[in-house]
Amino acid sequence: PGAGAPRQRRRRRKVSCFSSIQLFLVSECALMLAQGTVGAYLVSVLTTLERRFNLQSADVGVIASSFEIGNLALILFVSYFGARGHRPRLIGCGGIVMALGALLSALPEFLTHQYEYESGEIRWGAEGRDVCAANGSTSDEGPDPDLICRNRTATNMMYLLLIGAQVLLGIGATPVQPLGVSYIDDHVRRKDSSLYIGILFTMLVFGPACGFILGSFCTKIYVDAVFIDTSKLDITPDDPRWIGAWWGGFLLCGALLFFSSLPMFGFPQSLPPRPEHAGESEQAMLPERDYERPKPSNGVLRHALDGDSSTGCFQQLRVIPKVTKHLLSNPVFTCIILAACMEIAVVAGFAAFLGKYLEQQFNLTTSSANQLLG
């Protein structure tokens, strides 16, 4: 018993370092800032990916939509079951998954051949800014069919890899926002909840600006700058044949996501109540003995299942449609959801291709278009 007492005191001191909702807010803000940055960075390099891998506009549209596909596939289950689990750890795991997705997004550059551009003079005219006139003599022979087939196969593989990476990013982002907001709402006074959540979503707004600025910086660097001597290049970022280092931003975002996720693993499942605010709190706080137990969720306390865990899981799955129907029967909630969907639809409809429109319509470089969007 004597030897175990110091160990328990050390454990309390170790937990108390993270027993602050303010520290959790800072950690959550950092993670959501990194999430918003990587999402906007993808949009900033879509035209670069289109030229680098010879993709169509529909292809890059699918890549941009893959994040939402992965997010929608699990958001309902993670939000429902995650509220009964260790929310900070789930958020941290989601951040690690997002970091992996960001790193996988940069992988196609290292799996394909170096970028080779055609030598020639740019012909600015009705045919568009992406047309080059060859200096040398032209040949009547067409391109090698085998070479075209090999290039198309490699392009398809890189295309699928980019889609998978974005789906992974969407899956990782699933627990970050809903569980983070609920964790903050459960551990602050009701009158302070809007302030904390407002600070949280402010960071989410700054994320896209950081992503476009990062995209503007990375697209000024040549795509193969780490492999070749860029002083021998005869093209500049103003040349439509220029391909920027689109992969660099994904590596940086992956590192930011990884390191911003690590503090989440130090927070307890539920923070201890603060005695100085116990009388002022308008929300039910946990008693001291329930320090590691989750708070009530959806009005029902979490009980340990003594029987078969799989049976309990199936029972919970059967409850989800009933809970969803109950929520949708609330007219205020339904109107807010519909308004949010319409707002997102307006932005998402043109945000992914606004950069390409600026480049093509006003003859801007990718870097300049990203600066305007940022």
Automatic annotation (TrEMBL):
It comes from the Eukaryota. One of its GO terms (cellular component) is basolateral plasma membrane. InterPro entries: MFS_trans_sf (IPR036259), OATP (IPR004156). It is found in: Cell membrane; Membrane. Keywords: Disulfide bond, Ion transport, Membrane, Transmembrane, Transmembrane helix, Transport. One of its GO terms (molecular function) is sodium-independent organic anion transmembrane transporter activity. The chain crosses the membrane at residues 21-43, 63-83, 157-174, 195-223, 243-265, 332-354. One of its GO terms (biological process) is sodium-independent organic anion transport. It is a multi-pass membrane protein. PANTHER family: ORGANIC ANION TRANSPORTER, SOLUTE CARRIER ORGANIC ANION TRANSPORTER FAMILY MEMBER 3A1. Belongs to the organo anion transporter (TC 2.A.60) family. This is Solute carrier organic anion transporter family member. It comes from Columbina picui (Picui ground-dove).
